[in-house]
Amino acid sequence: PISNEIIKSGIKQAQIVARFEKINIANKTVILDVAHNPAAVQTLVDTLLESPMETVAIFSALADKNIDDMIELASSNIKHWFLVPLSATRSIQMETLKDKFGDSQETTVCASMGSAIEQALTLKEIQRVVIFGSFYTISEVLPLIQSIRDGTKGG
């Protein structure tokens, strides 16, 4: 049998992938966070506020989540939103998602996660890109981040 000490040790070492995971790409800080409900987004926002800088978001969520509150909570910290489609069956339609943003909020509907990352990273005045909204959002970004990292090694 496995001792309680081993189990406790394992739990302490376990980490949720992409809870405010920081990666540096092209002189920008990229934050991956699986925040997909208002409470988690509030925690994300509080952490972003600890080091204020020009920030854009790459965002998508599942249709059954409280997207309005998620957007409202994060909006004051986000200069521009890149909206991406997800391949999950419960993902929100892009038109519906775009309609959730007010006129004062800058949004770009992207054809893919790759396109969103490319556009976000080319914005000169932006220092930070935060990618959040769903576990699906993060699962679609991870292979792309890995390939960007592999392509920029030694660069």
Q: Can you walk me through this structure?
A:
The chain has 155 residues and is α/β, with parallel strands linked by helices. It is 41% helix and 18% strand. The protein is built from six helices and six strands; from the N terminus they run αββαβαβαβαβα. The chain has a six-stranded mixed sheet. Strand 4, helix 4 (94-99) and strand 5 (106-109) form a beta-alpha-beta unit. Helix 2 (38-49) runs parallel beside helix 3 (67-75). The longest helix has 18 residues, at 135-152.
Write down the secondary-structure element order. HEEHEHEHEHEH
Residues in helices, as a percent range = 40-55%
The mean pLDDT is 89
The structure class reads alpha/beta
Strands of the largest sheet, in order across it? 1-2-6-3-4-5
User: What's the Cα radius of gyration?
Assistant: 16 Å
Poorly predicted regions are: none
Subunit organisation of the chains: single chain
Number of helices: 6
Shape: globular
Strand content: 15-25%
Please report the distance between the alpha carbons of the first and last residues: 49 Å
Number of strands: 6
- Biggest beta sheet attributes: 6 strands, mixed
Which short descriptors sum up this protein?
155 residues, alpha/beta, six-stranded mixed beta sheet, 6 helices, 6 strands, 18% strand
List the helices and strands and how they pair.
Elements: H1 4-13, E1 21-25, E2 28-32, H2 38-49, E3 55-59, H3 67-75, E4 80-83, H4 94-99, E5 106-109, H5 113-121, E6 128-132, H6 135-152
Parallel strand pairs: 2-6, 3-4, 3-6, 4-5
Antiparallel strand pairs: 1-2
